[in-house]
Inverse folding.
C-alpha cells in the first residue's frame, strides 16, 4: 500500500487548535519533511492549494505557499518520491498548467503529478475577480473535463485545437512533453459525479477517512463501480489524521489536548457560522464545533502498533491503493512514523 503525506503548505497544518503545534509554512519546513519522508520510505507528497484562510486566534490557513513553485523546489532536492501539486482550475489556463507540469516533470525526472481542484469556495476566487459565476457550482465537472482534455492533448501530441463550451484553442503548442507523455492526476470529489470524473480522467481518488471503515468501503466501491464503466485503472487514496504515542492512552491524551484548544472563531468561519456568538453558544454547540477542529478528517489515534494495525485494515479494502497522512508536527512525526509504524505494517512488508 502506498503511503503519502499532505505536506504543510499552510500554517499550522490541519488542526484549528491553539494547543496544536503552531508554525508558519516555509520551504525549509517542507524540505525537511520531504527529506525525512524519503528516508522513511514514503511513496508520495501532496501540497494543497489554498487562497484564503479562516482567521481566528490561530490565523488558520491565512498563510500559504504556492503549490507548483513549492513542488518544483522539492523536485530539485529529492530523488525518488512522487510529488503532486494542486491546481485550482478557475485560476490558471490549462495550457499554462500543462507547461508548468512538464517543466516540473523534467526537474523531478518523471516524478510529478497534479491534484485537480475543480473549485467550489467562492470567496477564494471572488477576491481576485476570478469567480466564474454561480453557474459554476453545477457545471464545474464539465469545465474540469474540458480542462483535463486540453492538458492531456498537449502532453500527448504537443498541440491542441480544442473547441468546447469553456475553452477554444487555435493551434496551441507545447513542448517538450512530460517524460511519459502524461502525468498522473489525482481527484478529490466525493459526489457520484466527482467519482465518475476521476474514473474517466484521473488515476487516484482521494476520499476522507473515517473511523467507520464501512464508509470507506462504500466510497471505494462507488469509485470501483465508476471505473468498471470507464474501463480505466484507478484507485483510492484515503486521508487520515495520524496522532501517535508510545501507548494508546498517551496518544488519546494528546488528541484530547488538541481538541480542547479548538479555535472556535476559525471553525465557525469555516462552517459558515460567521455570525454565531461563540461566547453565548451552548455547551452542546461548542462540543460540536470542537469536533470539527481537524476539518473532519478521520483520526487514527493510538500507539504505533495500533496505528499500524488500523492502516493494515484499510489496505485490505478493495480499491484502496494508499493512504495520505496528516500529522501534527511534521518533521518529527514523519520520522517517528517511518521508524515506529511502518515496520509494524504487514501491508508494507
Amino acid at each position: 500500500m502506498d503511503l503519502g503525506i499532505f505536506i504543510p503548505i499552510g500554517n499550522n497544518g490541519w488542526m484549528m487548535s491553539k494547543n496544536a503545534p503552531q508554525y508558519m509554512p516555509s520551504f525549509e519546513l517542507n524540505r525537511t519533511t520531504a527529506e525525512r519522508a524519503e528516508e522513511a520510505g514514503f511513496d508520495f507528497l501532496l501540497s494543497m492549494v489554498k487562497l484564503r484562510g479562516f482567521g481566528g486566534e490561530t490565523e488558520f490557513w491565512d498563510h500559504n505557499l504556492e503549490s507548483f513553485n513549492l513542488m518544483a523546489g522539492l523536485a530539485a532536492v529529492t530523488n525518488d518520491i512522487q510529488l503532486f501539486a494542486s491546481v485550482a482550475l478557475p485560476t490558471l489556463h490549462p495550457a499554462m498548467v500543462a507547461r508548468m507540469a512538464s517543466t516540473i516533470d523534467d526537474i523531478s525526472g518523471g516524478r510529478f503529478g497534479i491534484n485537480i481542484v475543480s473549485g467550489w469556495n467562492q470567496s477564494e476566487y471572488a477576491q481576485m475577480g476570478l469567480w466564474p459565476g454561480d453557474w459554476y457550482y453545477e457545471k464545474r465537472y464539465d469545465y474540469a473535463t474540458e480542462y483535463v482534455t486540453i492538458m492531456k492533448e498537449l502532453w500527448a501530441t504537443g498541440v491542441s485545437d480544442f473547441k468546447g463550451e469553456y475553452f477554444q484553442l487555435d493551434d496551441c503548442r507545447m513542448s517538450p512533453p512530460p517524460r511519459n507523455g502524461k502525468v498522473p492526476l489525482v481527484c478529490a470529489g466525493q459526489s457520484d459525479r466527482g467519482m465518475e470524473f476521476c474514473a474517466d480522467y484521473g488515476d487516484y481518488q482521494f476520499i476522507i477517512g473515517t473511523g467507520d471503515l464501512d464508509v470507506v468501503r462504500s466510497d471505494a466501491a462507488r469509485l470501483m463501480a465508476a471505473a468498471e464503466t470507464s474501463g480505466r485503472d484507478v484507485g483510492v487514496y484515503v486521508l487520515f489524521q495520524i496522532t501517535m504515542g508510545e501507548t494508546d492512552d498517551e496518544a488519546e491524551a494528546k488528541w484530547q489536548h488538541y481538541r480542547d484548544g479548538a479555535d472556535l472563531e476559525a471553525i465557525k468561519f469555516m462552517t459558515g457560522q460567521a455570525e454565531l456568538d461563540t461566547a453565548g453558544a451552548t455547551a452542546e454547540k461548542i462540543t460540536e464545533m470542537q469536533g470539527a477542529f481537524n476539518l473532519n478528517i478521520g483520526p487514527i489515534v493510538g500507539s504505533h502498533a495500533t496505528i499500524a494495525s488500523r492502516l493494515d485494515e484499510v489496505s485490505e479494502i478493495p480499491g484502496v491503493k494508499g493512504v495520505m497522512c496528516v500529522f501534527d508536527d511534521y518533521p518529527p512525526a514523519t520520522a517517528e512514523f517511518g521508524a515506529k509504524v511502518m515496520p509494524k505494517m504487514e501491508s508494507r512488508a
Remarks:
- The chain has one domain: 2-348.
- The domain at 2-348 is CATH 3.20.20.30 (TIM Barrel).
